[in-house]
Amino acid sequence: MAKANPVRELRDALRACRSYLLWAAGFSLAINLLYLASPLYMLQVYNRVVNSGSEITLVLLTVILVAAYAALASLDAIRLQILSRMGVRLDALLGAEVLATTFRIGAGGARSQPLRDFDVFRQFVSSSSISALLDLPWVPIYIVAAFLLHPAIGLFTLVSCVVLLILAISNEFFLSKPLREANEAAARSHSFAEMSARNAEVVQAMGMLDGVVRRWGRDRTRFVARQVEAGTRASWMGSLIRFLRLSMQSLALGLGALLAINHLASTGAMFAGTFLLGRALQPIEQIVGSWRNIVNARVSYLRVRDGLSEQGRVPELMKLPRPKGQLTVDSLHFAVQSATRFALRSVAFALAPGEALGIVGPSGAGKSTLTRLIVGVLKPTAGAVRLDDADIQHWPPMLLGQHIGYLPQDIELFSDTVAANISRFTPDAEADVVKAAQMAGVHEMILRLPQGYNTQVGEGGAVLSGGYRQRIGLARAVFRIPSLVVLDEPSSNLDADGDTALATCMASLRALGSTVVIVSHRPATLGAVDKILFLRDGAVEAFGPREQIAARLSGKRPTAPEPEMANG
Questions:
Q1: pTM greater than 0.85 (yes/no)
Q2: Which domain holds residue 397?
Q3: Is residue 226 part of a domain?
């Protein structure tokens, strides 16, 4: 079984919204037909009312004109509502998929870019800017009406529309490059700003603000410069088109007057022709005025499409039974694309259900990278991580997550309640939340918070201390007793009581049959493991029972029986 290609899902979503566009186009036709009421009114007033002097006819014509205008305004409002609902429908169909993309690609501040791009495109298709595009196909209505008045008026209207349309198309060549470069610089600027905001404490504490501002300013300056360049070009093009439109309308009036003088057309045709020309040119002028919005929407759409296409086919794999927890790492290699060497090389080991493994090694050995590979956050360059003999890359991601508990070194809590964070946003899980908190030894601490389990933790858990965040993160990791629990430096912010609670939690997990992998430099924590794996420079230097490896490492390094643990 396979889930549809994300790009196909994008096309399917746009196809599902096609009915909204068809309805909007239908209303556009009706709106443009109603605009003909004004030139018809002019023709009747100048050709019939003025000559006959009939006030009743004038009143009736005026009432009909006002009714047509009222219908036109109502249809235009309904068209905008249809476009707004199309935006809502598009968001319902694609919003979750685009959000999922932010978790699958990139890192850092760039993760929010797909959502920003999607919002730009969604807001465009539901805004009044698209109305001009919907009106453009109906311009021939006014050209035909102008030909019916007089061939010369019709030909002048046709030539004027073609000239402005050529200028509108040429606008693409003037604006596309600076706008594209401005959007790229803006994306880099926003990404760096978000990353800097997440590291605000480091920036403030070490006096890095001036340097960060200068670094941010490089992309910001380029963004503003290219935006100004695009704005300048757009203003000149808009001014040129406005000049031509006003000139053409005046010339159309002069042409109509010339025809009227020579008795080739009526006075009403002279004014009606001027109105028809102005109405025919209006959508083109509006498109040029909204060209930056159109280009930004197109660029954003292409980025969303490319981001979805990079995900390829997301397999909808067969559901597997709950794993027992047997973990096998088979000839694991990993290297990032830009790296010249492997971060991990030929890493291999196996754990039985209920066993606990301690991973140790010097800084840069690859410990944290190995934990990310074990939980499936990273994909190995070669080799495999197997859970009950099944490659974790072959597990349905949502199902696999239910059987894995993960506590990363950098703990991030969501801006919600303590209970919501522990439950992984699972509804109706109060009993399991309390059980997880008790297992992590944090239940009593949570009860002492202002609102207990309903306490809001703030953005990233800002209202909590480091120890609180770490123990709540541990409770989240052990929620509903996963088959595999991976803990990366779980005791870095813990005191003696926290260490004791962690050791008790590990013992409970093992007793319940969960396999535990822990990265730690504290002897008290490693004392609860069955086996130790020693990494150096991305390769396994030692693996075996805890007593044997600890004695071996102690013999090699008498001054440091346990190697210092840092972020791998």
A1: no
A2: 327-556
A3: yes
